[in-house]
Amino acid sequence: MAGVHRLFTPETWKNWDKTGRSEVLQTIKDFVKDDPDNPGFSQPGEAGDLSRALYEILTAFLKGNLRKEQARPFIAEIINLHPDMSSQLVEVSMLLDLENSATDRMGKNREPLMTLLKSLETDKLLKERLEIETLGEAGVVKNKKTFHTRQIKVKTKLFYKQQKFNLLREETEGYAKLVTELNQDITDRITPKSMIQVIRSLIGGFNLDPNRVLDLILESLECRPHQHEFYTGLLKLYPCESSTISELLGFKLNSYGLNGRTGKGIYTTIALLIQANILHFSDIYKWLTPEDSSMIEDYQREESEARDIAMKVHVVSTKDKEKDNKEKEKEDDEREREELRNMEKYYTNQKVQLCIALLEVGAWDNFNELSRRFPDYYLVSCPPISQALCKLIHATIEPIYRKVCVLPSRLKGTVVELINNSLAPPPAYTFEDVCNTIFPMLCALGPHIYHDPGLIYKVLRVAKMALKQITMSGEGMRQDFYYEFLTVLDEVLLPSLSVLDSNPCLAEEIWEVVKVYPYQHRYKIYGRWKNETHTQHPILVKARTRLLKKAKFIMMRITKETIKPVSRGIGKLTHNNPGPIFHYILIQVQLYDNLIGPVVDSFKYLTSLSYDMLAYCIVEILSENKDRTANDAMAISPWLQSLSNFCGTVFKKYPMDLGGILQFVANQLKCEKSIDLLILREIVQKMGGIDTLEDLTSEQLDAMCGGELLRREAGQYQQERNIKRSSVRLKEALLENNLAIPLLLLMAQQRNSVVYNQTESPHLKLVGKLYDQCQDTMVQFGSYLFQMVTIDELSDRLPSIGTLLSDCHVNADVAFFLARPLFTNMLNLKYDELRRQDRGEKKLTIEQKKKRYLEACNEVFGPIVTNIRPHFSCKVWEDMDPSFFLTFWTLTMSDLEVPTHIYEKEIKKIDVNPSSSKRKKDTDRLVSLREKLQEEEKRQKEHVERVRARLQQEKDKWFMLRAARSPKNDTVTAFLQLCLFPRCTFTALDAVYCSKFVKMLHDLKTPNFSTLICYDRMYCDITYTVASCTEQEANRYARFLLGTLETVMHWHASQSNYEKECANYPGFVTKYRVSRQEANDYVDYENYRHVVHKWHYKITKALVTCLESGDYIQIRNAILILQGILSRFPAITNLAAVIEKRIERVKNQEKSRRNDLYVLANSYSGRLKAAKSTLMPETDFHIVPKRTPPTSKVVNGTTEKAQAASKDGKAVGEVTENDKEVKVESTEATNGDVDMKEEKRETRSGKKEAEDKKDSSEAKKDDKKEDPKKKAKDGKRAKPDEEDETVEADREREGSVVSNSSSSSVKMEPPEGSTRGSKRRKTETNSKKKESHHKEHKTKERSKRTKSDETGHRRSRSRSREGSHHSRSRSDESTPSESSKKRKHRKHSSKSKLTESASPDKSAKHSSRKKISKANRLVNSVVVDVQTLDSDDSDVMLAYEDGGVEEPRKRNHHKTEQKHSRARSRHSRH
Length: 1470
Description:
Strand content: under 5%
Largest sheet: 2 strands, antiparallel
Shape: elongated
Distance between the termini: 127 Å
Number of strands: 8
Structural class: mainly alpha
Strand order of the largest sheet: 1-2
Helix content: 55-70%
Radius of gyration: 53 Å
């Protein structure tokens, strides 16, 4: 008490005689109660203050602040204030004595205190209150032992000796009257106050025992519990303590013994007294049995048994256990039934009975207080307690249930009576009352609500109505009921469903409530239900174990033949607890993919809740951190493929929510993990019926060029009736979750980064597969959206084309793929609007319709052109107009041509003739289908004509002719880089479109567009393109090459085709003039055949390079492309032989290393051998030039060198060296050079080598003797002479395009030792010496500038293939693997030229000067020689009307370059 506030200050004791004594006395008088009618000791709530005052007085005495003569009379005076004051003083003295004994071991303060107390004549109280040891030490008792003995005797006589008297004889009338009064009918006149007066009178009049009277009152309450309010009010007025009542009730509890049923009333009495706060819970609890520890041990034992049972499920036994399992299952079932039936153990448990009584009277708070003494859910796990709690909830929820769930009049239902107790929980009349009162009870009950399924239905129906109002009203009640009910679902309703036997009706009722929540909330409670909740309840552990046993038993017997019985078994198991069952089934599906079909078919009896749980289990398994690759990260893991297939099949067949799985794929894409796109691909394929266009045949691709009806009938193999519902479900899921456009954009972004961000060091095979998967899924998903989603819905969600190109970071191919349907719809709407403005809309002519269509195009595409212009560099639009860029990317195959043959074929298939086997309905359907196809064909023809008219109008402004640049090279480069190559590898249909678009440009006679240059750039060097393609891109690129080769070979097939479709077309112009073109400015048929032969050779060379590289990707892509173009390439026998030889080599090398390459090569080898009969020899393909004797005659600007072998009359393909004949595999005439492969090489003789060395040394001496002054003079004249010499060279090349001369070579590749100019044979006359030097100098500078421009374009590409599309035009480049071969070949070529060269003719020099001066006067047009097609870099030279040539951009050459140029000039001169 030292820490309590003080009542008196030190000044009080100092001034004791003056004011202190009166102050203390008045304070104590204020604390003492003065009420004769209600005697008591102190004022209510001030007993502690009185004790404090006495404590301070005694403390002051002990500390010496009060003398003994002052303290003793004052204490004697205050004792007389109240009879109980001495008792209180002794109590305070005992406390003070304990404090002193703890602090004062010597007992100095104790002796004055005891002396003071003895002087106050309080010996009786001291003997009663103080300990015996203290009494002896204080001298109050002389002999402690004697006093203790006497105390025991007195207590025994007082408490244990019964007085003998006859109660019936002396007090019968009093007890009889008391019983009559207590058990009379209670009316309003009878109140507890009036009854207490009667009881007092009876006690006083008949000398009744108060304890016996109290017992009779309790008996009356036990017999009439419905009058509990009267009796509890009476007991509150009766002067008794809680301990007295607990002793009386405890005696009765002990007398009942083990027969708990007969004592039910006493538990109700105890519950009512506890509820009314008359009986303290702690006073009565110590009388209850059994002990808490024994009950907790029973609960722990039950938990351990449940865990042991769960562990045994995963134990694999090798015994023949079918019989054992059946017997054990029967034993377990019987044991559980016995435990449920044996309820006696609960009735002998007094604490359980008290809990039941508390719940029956509505003492909810007191029950909570009792349940806290035990583990969670232990008390409610006792069936009687859980049933009693269910009844309490029934009574509480009844008003709101009858209010919101109105039954028909003919169904009255069972009416539950409310609890007649004002202290019980109030009934719920509103949803807020349900949230505040009923939900805590349900959470305390937990899964043990399964004892009363009717209550579960009530709660669900009330919650359903509440959630319905919440969703309609908005966010008002969402914070209370909306989220609190999630807790009820998590802790009560779903776990209780797991304990029940198969109850599909209850599962559907739960689903009706659960489906209101989004999948995020649902999946959260599903996860707890499946993985956590069962661990808290032993009964759930046992139920889960039984289910898993049955699931394993069923899955061992599932086949296609046993689907019907198995599906019923699976449905029955999943009605109550689907999570563990689905988890086990999905594990089996991942291991055995042949189970997918039977398992999916066996799900037909599932409930809606089970389907939603299945969707969660799929997402959960996909979210596990499992390795998604196999075979050292070279392939996708089989478990993911099986699970993806299962997802597509099950989501298509059953009405399951797709929001979770779609969001999972989106989240994986956000994390830059594209491998899970396999799931989305399977879902779209099976639910939407949209498959990828990669495996379609040529006929199907043609059908895809038609209208919607033709694509559906002939373009795909699908049954629309099977996918109609599933396709709509997928669309609704995408739009509701707002995932349609985000998924497309994520796939587009992931496609660009998959090469860099997938893994740190993946195998290129897997990276390519992931890239293809991302591309194919994006196209597949986009095609599905464009087919199912309306344009209005799409336009509201899709960003503009400018946003796609800039903010969304996607390439032009993807951006226009997404925006193309919107542009088409805008154009059609505008066209229809313009047509409706005319009065005679239906009478418009074709020309008028075309005019309206052109107006619509101008209005729609004008703003779009303005929008896309800033997103590309200004340099791009110098080569092509933005309108051409937009036209290329917005058109499709259905805009370019009509697949008339496919329409005719499909129309012929339709048999409309009625027959006995056909119903009239089928006949009408076929007639309608035929008419629709015919109408669609007609509409598409009109549409193609309108598009043709639009293209005819726009073509003149597509490509601009600029004086400072070649009109064809940069234009073609920009076209290939920005348009053709990105789109030809996008889809198979786009590959066909690109090939047709190039032909369309040619057919339109597009100004300033060279068809020859375009095809030459495509074919010249495809090595980099092939090496940088993925597997699917290689297939698409093969389709593109096939389409272009079909066009090229169609013109090559006959001269009539060529004259009709190519002659006099701008695409085949060889010389661009300012004035009108002349007849000889176009390529003739034979020269075109030479060029086509060159293209075939270039393709062969590139593919052979890839086949010989040893790289997996290059070999695979080369074979795939060869397979794709087999119908048109190879077309020449010698090229086919070269390819066949390389293929055989690949087969031999890869047979034991990479089996997939071997299979590809073997497949192509067989097909190539079968196609050999259709090949033609080189002489039939084009006119093969024959070798002629040595002469200085100039043909097309080149000299025909004499060959020793020509004298002997050797045919092409053979060469004679040192009288020995060497056979050559193949020959190729390319601009005067012949490239050959030798089967066998023989070394040159020593004599020949000596002659070569001698000629070379003489040439070097001649160069050294050259006059230095003359060299300087020639150098000064180089610049003005360059113009004349260039024009002279161009004039000399006008006679022919390709030189017909050929020479032997031991390499398959063309000579690489010189630039483009040096590849054409020079005349051996001395007049060409300076001309060759300047020409090489200018050509090298232009080639260097072209390479620099193209390198800049390559660096701007976002894709990983930095050396890809536009680098194809640079055919003079070669792969690093060929560099050493080319260096050797250049050295060998130089030697050969030095050896074979003749001395220059001086007379030819004078005639050459005259020709140059004449050419300067006659130049009046811009000349572009098509002979540049034969050069590796396909560059061109320009001459202008003023007679000059284009000034190179850079004239500051390095000294080393000048030395190399002079060296090449000397070699050409020799």
